[in-house]
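Q: What structure does this chain adopt?
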Amino acid sequence: MPIDPDIQKLLDMVNALPAVDFEHLPGEEAARKMRVPVNVPPIPKRAAKVENRSVPGPGGDIPVRIYWPVGKGPFGVMVSFHGGGWVIGNLDSDEYKSHMLVNESGVAIVSVDYRLAPEHKFPAAAEDCYAVTRWVYEHARSLNFDPNRLGVGGSSAGGNLSAVVPLMARDRGGPPLRFQLLTYPVCDDNFDRPSYVNNPRGKIISRAQMQWFWDMYVPEKKDRDHPHATPMREKNLRGLPPALVITAEYDPLCDEGAAYAARLKEAGVETEYVTYAGMVHGFISVAVLHPVSTQALKHTAAAMKKYLG
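A:
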């Protein structure tokens, strides 16, 4: 189907804004220009409790934001990793989404402000996300969480990290995970997949931008063979937690998300794959009030409740 007309109006507005010449600016200068404050839309219903903390990490303290649902607990909990190509984003990036998901699912969320590229290259982001996930498991009881109902989730680059952390947890002896949420995830660095070829300029994100993001986070091509950078390169996907994989029809990343979901299924991992027709990369965040975005969030919350609630 064609791009949703309301989404197209939003795209026209975005395309009219001044763009950062990321291809010609030095990486760190382009990253600084791209790191603008996040405009968080009004939140109709807030989580019962929200608290900012710091968690010890391999490169220093990692800021986190914890959202608790209404109720007595102990609660299931999802550790959440924001998108932004491993280069942009912060604790405000998923603020609206986090409140909504906590209220809809009854599951707590711990949002992670992991180190960003190009200042901190691979594997900094992945190691930070794993460190916080382990910390949440180890401190679950004191936070009123159930350590046996722990999952991870994220969008775009956060979806990449949400695919990587279960691999790290499986291969490093824990923590045990019950769920992985991969929303339009970055799973591969193959820019010749049909969804890249058919959407070279992309909607919200382009082929050239994704190549640049990869160059900022994993500049050494040999490092992209490591599954902790490119989860599609992992030969063995057995023993991973159940997954919900969400993609969008007009997203250059659509095909790699679909391919990774297919591989998870082939490996015997309980996997649900959903693609949203007429939608673009990041539609849940850039059009939070769109009915399809609301539908996707409710679907996500139902999966969180199923596996972690």
